[in-house]
Amino acid sequence: VTGLPTMRSEKPGWVGLKCENEEMSLWLLRAIVVENVCVRREGTVLFLPAGPAFRLEKEIKNVITVVAKTHHYWTEHRYS
């Protein structure tokens, strides 16, 4: 959705999204939290929840939608 590389997490239940820099990772983290999606950060990598009980039409769709929306805000509107 974002074109950003993904990373495996050493901790089960998370998938990593490598941001361009720390400013971007902090901004996206805050924007994602406001959307009520759990997220954590290690440096420039955001870790988003992913689990075997996640349903495509519910949890997965919610995480993808929030990441797409916040990434769009970051890339298209932050200097407007």
Task: Write a structural description.
- With 80 residues, the chain is α+β, with helices and mostly antiparallel strands.
- Helices cover 44% and strands 20% of the residues.
- It has helices spanning 22-34, 56-77, and strands spanning 6-8, 14-18, 40-42, 45-49.
- Strands 1-2-4-3 form a 4-stranded antiparallel beta sheet, covered by helices on one side.
- Helix 1 crosses helix 2 (56-77).
- The longest helix has 22 residues, at 56-77.
Short recap of the structure:
This protein is α+β, with helices and mostly antiparallel strands. The protein has 2 helices and 4 strands; from the N terminus they run E-E-H-E-E-H.
What descriptive keywords fit this protein?
20% strand; alpha+beta; globular; 44% helix; 80 residues; 4-stranded antiparallel β-sheet; 4 strands
Number of helical elements? 2
What is the global morphology? globular
The biggest beta sheet reads: 4 strands, antiparallel
Q: What strand line-up does the widest sheet have?
A: 1-2-4-3
Helix/strand class: alpha+beta
Q: What is the N-to-C order of secondary-structure elements (H for helix, E for strand)?
A: EEHEEH
- How much of the sequence is in beta strands? 15-25%
N/C terminus separation = 22 Å
Instruction: Using the CA coordinates, give the radius of gyration.
Output: 12 Å
Estimate the mean pLDDT confidence. Answer: 94
Low-confidence stretches: none
Helix content, binned percent: 40-55%
Number-wise, the strands total: 4
What secondary-structure arrangement, pairings included, does this model have?
Blueprint: E1 6-8, E2 14-18, H1 22-34, E3 40-42, E4 45-49, H2 56-77
Antiparallel strand pairs: 1-2, 2-4, 3-4
